[in-house]
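User: I'm writing a tutorial on reading structure tokens. Could you give me a worked example: one chain, its sequence, then its tokens, then a sentence or two explaining what the tokens reveal?
Assistant: Sure. Here is the example chain.
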Amino acid sequence: MRQKRKVIFGILAAILAIVLFGVGIHFIDNMTNKSEKSGEYDYEQDCVYLGDGIYELNNNLENYLIIGTDDSGNEAAVGTKDYRGSMADFLLLLVINKTDQTYGFLQIDRNTITDVPGIDTEGNGDEFFEEQICCAHWYGGNPEQGCENTVYTVSELLGGVPIYGYFSMNMGDIGILNHAVGGVEVTLDEDFSDKDPAMTKGKTIKLNDEQAEIYARGRLNIGDESNAARMERQIAFMQAFKAKATKRAKDDPDFTEDLFNKLKASTAVTDIPRSELSVIMNQIYKGEDLGILRLEGERTEGMTLGDGKLHEEFYPTEESIAEVVKTLCGITETDRIE
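And here are its predicted structure tokens:
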């Protein structure tokens, strides 16, 4: 039984590593404690406001936001007025429905235009800006406040879906994941030779650590340079990593712990307590996988970033938001309040 649990945990940890792009939450130091949830929510948390009405959340949900940041901020200046968080390049919401025994993911485009709270370096402020959702992490006076601001923004985008924890890390740790499984194999859908001469379009390649970061993070001078195309590559990388990591975890019970020990010195920031791990493990092991969903909408260019330059913008439809939330949270028309 102990050996079986190690294998199960290894599989879970491999999946979490995919989700987190390489960091194991049970080995991160200085985690904050969070009280057990009573299941009693206020009106806003117990309901979601979707385009066609208000729906009651009758299912037992555990939702966590995974944040992958870039290097655009000034996080070394934490605690000062010069602090600026990095942009949230990667946003993935894990939704665990313990009532229906399902779990699924929502990959959110960083360029999604929505109302972002413009909190100051003290974490205060009630002004909102219509801008790319990745900017939510830019605000605040430390990474924790940036994460909390991002959690709030994502929740509001989805009609008030409750999010109980966050996990943030720098996207530069992708190479550590790749190294742990001896290189992820992918077929290159675009030409990456501007970054690495060996990465030509159509070639099937086992990525080295530098190539893994280029593949999953790169955008400029790659294909149409869109974030949508990069999101497709991130899914491809996750799926390829999952296959190799799952096999490694089955063959070597120490694989997961060794991987996470190598990653514990990363830039991870989280408020997920250790007690939540068993919930995540059991649901992913026993539950039905609903897959990785995305919102539908219009892609255009605009100047909402305020720097005088055109940037990619994504406007999701209310219908798409409603459909995705209903699917992941197990909401039906019988849950409609008004």
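What the tokens reveal: The chain is about 35% helix and 25% strand. The radius of gyration is 20 Å.
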